Structures are given as C-alpha cells and as structure tokens.
Amino acid sequence: MKHLVFAAGFLSATATVAVAQTPELTVYTYDSFVSDWGPGPQIEAAFEDRCGCDLNFVGVEDGAALLARVRLEGARSEADVVLGLDTNLIAAARETDLFAPSGVTAEYDLPVTWDDPVFVPYDWGYFAFVHDVDMTPPANLRALAESDTSIIIQDPRSSTPGLGLLMWVKAAYGDEAEAIWEGLSDNIVTVTKGWSEAYGLFLEGEAEMVLSYTTSPAYHLIAEEDDSKAAAVFDEGHYMQVEVAAAMETSDSPELARDFLQFLVSETAQSILPTTNWMYPAVMPEAGLPEGFAQLVEPEKALLYAPEDAAALRREALDEWLRALSR
Amino acid sequence: MAARAQPISPWPGVAAAALVAMVILGTLATVAMRAESSGRFAPGDFAAIRFTLVQAVLSAVLSVGLAVPVARALARRRFRGRTALVALLGAPFILPVIVAVLGLVTVFGRGGWLSGALGAVGLPPLSIYGLHGVVLAHVFFNLPLATRLVLQGWQEVPDERFRLAAQLRVEGWAMWRLIEWPMLMRVVPGALAVVFALCLTSFAVVLTLGGGPRATTIELAIYQAFRFDFDLGRAALLSGVQLVLTVAAATAALIAGSGAGFGAGQGRAVRRWDARGRMVRALDGAWIVLAALFLCVPLMAIVLAGAPGFVSMPAQVWDAALVSIGVAVASTCLVLALAVPMAAAVAQGRFGVVEVSGLLGLAASPLVIGTGLFILVRPVVDPFALALPVTALVNALMALPFALRILGPGARDVVAAHGRLALGLRVTGWRFLLLVLVPRMRAQIGFAAGLTAALSMGDLGVIALFADPETATLPLQVYRLMGAYRMDHAAAAALLLLVLSLAAFWSLDRGGRWHAEA
After folding, report:
1. Domain boundaries, chain B
2. Which of A13, A201, A223 is closest, CB to CB, to B382?
3. Distance (Å, rounded) from C-alpha B473 to C-alpha B458?
4. Which residue from A298, B17, B70, B372 could staple onto B357, CB 3.0 to 4.6 Å apart?
C-alpha cells in the first residue's frame, strides 16, 4: 500500500511540473479565500486573463497559520505572494525580513491612513457583535458587561476575531481592560476555537450575540434575503481588521508578484471582494458598494493599533484576558 | 511461554511498530530541532496539564464505566434492530468535531430540545458549558467505542464456556465472578487507555463546551505556542508531555490487562441461557434504551439539520466526498498492513512495547506531526503535492491504536489456541497468517477496517495544513462552507459525511462476520 501512496504523490508531483511552461505565480492565502465560495476562483480567473500566467493559490488554514507556514519555510519558500495577514500579524511578518516593498499605488478608502510600503491592504471590516433584530443591543462594551446579554466569542489564541476583540477592549479601555473582561465573564456563554463554531452556535440560538463583523448581516441580506440579523454599533468605537497582502523578497518572479498586488487593489478585484469575502473594499469600486451593504450599520469611530503597538500589547492583553476569565 | 517456538515471526510486527514510533518521535524531534531555542513551560501550562488530566480521566472512567452495563446488556439480549444499533454505535466517534458538537448543542444546549422541554414545565434551561459539558461530549464520542470494545470481549468468550456454565447452572453472581469479571479485567484497562489517550489530545470540543480559558488543554497550549508565539520548542515540549502521559497510561493498562484468556472454542455463535429473570431483562432493556437515546437523538438532530439542504448541495461537495473515500481506502489498507503484523507480535506476549508504540499515534498532536512531516518532506518534494498521502498517513496513525486494541486480544487467543497445532503441521509464517490468523480474526479485522475507514473519512486530520483548492476532503469542505456562512449546505455536507462514514463502517464491519451474530 505504501507504494500506492507514494505513487499517488509522485503522480501529482509530475502533474504540477507539466504545467510549468507559462510563468507561474504562487500565492499563499487562508483557506476560506481559496474555497469555492470565497473570492479565490474569480480572482484567479480575472488575473489569469490579463497576465498570461498561471496563478496558483495555496490555502493554509487562517492568517496566523499562514504566517507560521512562511516562517517555517523561510527564504526557501515557494510563495511569491502572501495574502491574508492582518494588522495584528504585520509586525511579526515584518521581523522575518521576508517581504519586499510592493510599489503599489492606490487611493485607499480606509477609515485610517495607510502608507505602509510593503503590506498592501485589499479589504477591511469592523469587528462587531451580531444579534437578531428583535433585541435591543447594549450601547457599548461596558453596558454589555453590565447587562445580562449572553455572548459567544472566539479564543484569541486560535482565532483572528478573538484576537481582534482582545485589541478592541484594550484600545477602548486601556488599563481598565481587565475590569471590562471581568464584567464580561458572566456574559460569555463559551469561547470557541474559531469563527465558524461561534457563528454556528449563535445560529443555533445558544446566545443573543456573537462576535463577528459589521458586514456579516450583508451575507444574510444579499445571499439569503434575510434581514433578521443586525450588527450592534458600540459608541466607544469598533476595532478594525485590515487584511493585507505582500510580495516575498525571495520570489523568482518579483514583477509578476507586484502586478498581482496592483491587481488586488484594481477595480476588477475590488468589485469581487465584497460579496465573496464579505468585507469592505480597500478601494471603492466605481459602481460603489453592492446593494445590501448600504443597509449595514456604520460605526462612528474606528479603532486600530499600529502594527508595532499591536505586537507590543497583545501579550499583556492576552494575560489580562486569561486572568479575568479564569477567575 | 517466552522461549517457545512460534508459528509466526514477531519481527514484521516489531518493524511496523518501530516505523510508527519513528514517524511520531521523528516528527516531534524535527519540530524541536527546528526551534530557535529549547522549549520552556509557560506559567499557564501546568494548569493546562492538570485540567487535561482531570477531564481525560473523568471522561475515560465514565465512558468505560457506562459501557460495561450497556455492553453486558447487548451481549445477553437478542432483539430486532440490535445489529443496526451495534453498527450505529460507530457513528458519533467518526463525526467531525464541529458537527457532533452542534448536534449535541441542538439537544442539550441552552436553546436545545431538552431546555425547551424543561422550559415548557417552567424549569430553567440547561447549561452545557463547563467541565460537565466537556465530559458529556467525550462520553457521547467514546461511550459507543468503549461499548464496542467491551462487547467484543464478551463475544470472544467461546460459546463452549457458556454451554458449560448453563449445564452447571452458573448464573448471576457466579457468572459474573467466573466469566465476566476475569474477561473485563482483560478488556477494560485497554479501553480505558484508548479513551484516555483520545481525550488527552481533544481540543475543539473542550474549548467550545468548556466555556472559556479555564478549559485550556495541552493541545490548545500547543496551538498557542505554535500560532500565537511561534515557539516551536515549547510546542514540541508540550507534545512530549502528551506522549509521556499516554505511554504511562498505556503501560499501566498493559500490566493490568495481561490476564490469561478463556482458551479456544470452535467459534460457534454464542448462545446464552442465563439472565432470564424479569428484573434482569428489564434492567438490560433500560440500559439499551438509555444508551440508544443518548446516542441517537443528537444524530437525529444532525440528520434533521442536514436534510433540507441535501438536494441543493454544491457539486464540489460530491467531489470532496470522492477524495475522502480515496483517503479512507488508503488509510484503511495502511492500518491493516501495520496492525495485523503488530497484533501477531503482541499475541506472543513478549512485545508489549509494540502495543505502546501503537498508542503513540493517539497521543501525538496532529499539529506537531503535520508540521514535522512538512519540514521533513519539503526538501525532497513539494508538500502540497503530498497533501492527500500525508493526510492518509496521519489518519492511519490516529486509527492504529483502535485497530490494535481490536485485533490484539483476538490474535492472542488464536496464537495460544492454534499455535502448537500449526507448528506441528508446519503451517508457519505467511501460511499461518493466511490460513489460520486472518480467517479466524475476520470479525475483528472487519471491525478494525470499518472503524479506520470511517474515522479517516470524518477526521479533518492535517489536510487543513496542506490543502490547495483542488484537494479538499469532505470534512474540510464542511468547514469551508461554514466559513462562507453557508450553514445549511455545511449541515447537508455533514449529513453526507455521516452517511458515507456509516456506510463504510457498516459494510466493512458486516463483511468481516460470517455468522449472523453481531
């Protein structure tokens, strides 16, 4: 049987060699990007139309796993582009010295100014608690902590939104963060490994609110014509997630990698992203946002730590979180 | 016994065990060596180790403790639907974690059926979140497996013993003392060790139902070390702790469960003449009904959730189903190729270390094995091209402990009963394997193959670490659908997975039995 296994591996290895005639671009990204229901297939088709190349997506679990993978591979990585890090991972990514300046120019429509020469933002969103429209949500995190509203959140150690909430509480409350977490501890029904488990439990009716994005109701509105879900606006502001891509220093086709990054912020790619990745476009397409996005709530204040601050704070924030919730 | 000639050489089994140990310890060492500094424990790690031990011990004791009366009832009773129930016992165990958890929550959750029923009579809803929720879920996963393992112990008692018992009017307490207790002493320690090891590495169940960071297990600490801190040294160290704990449990089980067997019989279907009183029958009935309800109601929830979206399921789900079937076939062949020689070696009594090495697969963190294999194969070949073979290999390593548990005791009895005759007739080596061992162990081999196929089909394994868009397995596709908000289709795909896994389990398990007895 082992022969068969190795034969199968060998066959698929030769299959990838056979198509290596045209220039090839390998993009590492998180798994939900490459899934048939994510932006991957449309982005791939659109870019291949113009580049005369072969775009290969490789899916790796999520943003944190993606960075771990690139660190493991180091300078010998096959990746030309890494797509799917966020501001919480940028500092660690920068430290690896594996990423090259992008050379991308774009008129970003982000609530924050963006002038990072290496990491190119391609979409963004606000973290938010999603709830059924028939409930009146609390006005902010402190009110939530004082209320008896039940919530489901994700673990910051294994999930991107989980880490986002950690930074959100820290950014909004600073030294008071631990007290807020202590207040929240009796609201938290449970903490899940990832977003899917949490959202699934919420849809099962296990809690009144779930940590997700302000854009989540857009999926229900557009794809399911269901307007029963809404995101709560909190008056202390919402922490942002900015998703970025970057070219690898070690890429053997740096030109193509830069073209791809420029393509990511182009009209074509930016029109694909909102209804496939369910996030706001980093550069507003000419046609504006798709219908359904207009109905979404818009936070008044955006919170975001600079990558270096986020990296410096997250250890402390995690310890506070662990202390407050383990009591 | 040690010096006696044997009809079959233990060395292929020892070699297989060495190979398994090499893969598991090798990947661990690879990760440790790739680390920039040697691993150190972080402050929270000891709490994590303690919590892991507490929940694993509780889960193992409860699962196996409840499995004994259920298996005893199933061994003594014959009723319509018994075969189906025994087959269904494989189901919870092979479900992807997220699906099983959602099924459990539909029944036991705050908004679940049970809470709804309680609410109707004015009682507060149940809370499934906490240590009790974790243990509940682990019992849901492992009670069926433990029941099958213990039930098999009953079935391996030759029919002749029960005939003799009936003639001597051995019943009730005497039956327990003379046959059932010694049999349990041989079977229960191994079952405990397997469930313990399984719960040791559990992570998503524990986190989701544990209710927060108090329920941090070693596996989650490994995840944190790897993903949050990128501290490979600590990941390897913690993975080592898991291995040590499992080896300790396995060794203890091995020593405890080494009693003599019941000798040989002619392998006829077992008939029972004892336990015919009304009370005992009612009691057995109650155990069977309770166990069936506990297992089937959450499965019902999964079926009901998946049914509406089943017809409109996207084509990619069917492609993924094919990929998963391929992976399951590969892991099943691999497991049998490893487990049958290993069981033959174990059967000769001197090679307990073979059995311990078989258990390692359960204790190893998939994250560490996956990462280690990745580092190892990368210089040689593109790891992404090997995504499916590596997934099949890791799934096989995870299933091997179960296969060994299932094959081990039977192989011991076959070698003890037929070894001398075979030696006298010079039926040795390959011929002993093909003419004696395999035919006499068809039932166990079928069960082991069925379990492996189903397990491999349902397990996410390491595919998430390696996947490219074209090679999604069905469990990965379930996660992808959920990640894309398509919960209905995810539920439908989960139902397909349940059906496929059960079909694989049922056909292999049935195929292995030549008499109608389950």
Report:
1. 1-38+307-518, 44-306
2. A13
3. 9
4. B17
The correct CATH number of B1-38+307-518 out of 3.40.980.10, 3.30.360.10, 1.10.3720.10, 1.10.1410.40 is 1.10.3720.10
Residues of B in contact with A31 (CB under 8 A): 464, 467, 476, 479-480, 483
Classify A78 as helix, strand or coil: coil
Question: B1-38+307-518 and B44-306: same fold?
Answer: yes
Q: Do A197 and B101 touch (CB under 8 A)?
A: yes
Of B451, B478, B471, B476, which Cα lies nearest the Cα of B396?
B451
Measured distance CA(B324)–CA(A206) in Å, rounded: 31
Model confidence over B146-165: pLDDT tens digits? 998 888 888 877 777 778 87
pTM of the model: 0.84
Contacts of A7 in chain B (CB under 8 A): none
> pLDDT digits over A228-256, tens only?
999 999 999 999 999 999 999 999 999 99
Q: In chain B, which residue's Cα lies nearest the Cα of A163?
A: B228
CB contact residues (below 8 A), chain A span 236-265, against chain B:
none
Which residues does B289 contact at the CB level (< 8 Å), separation at least 6? none
The CA-based diameter of chain B, rounded to the nearest angstrom, is 74
Closest-CA residue of chain B to A34: B469
What is the pLDDT averaged over residues B24-40?
82
> Phi and psi of B182, rounded to 5°?
-60, -35
Domain B44-306 has CATH 1.10.10.10: no
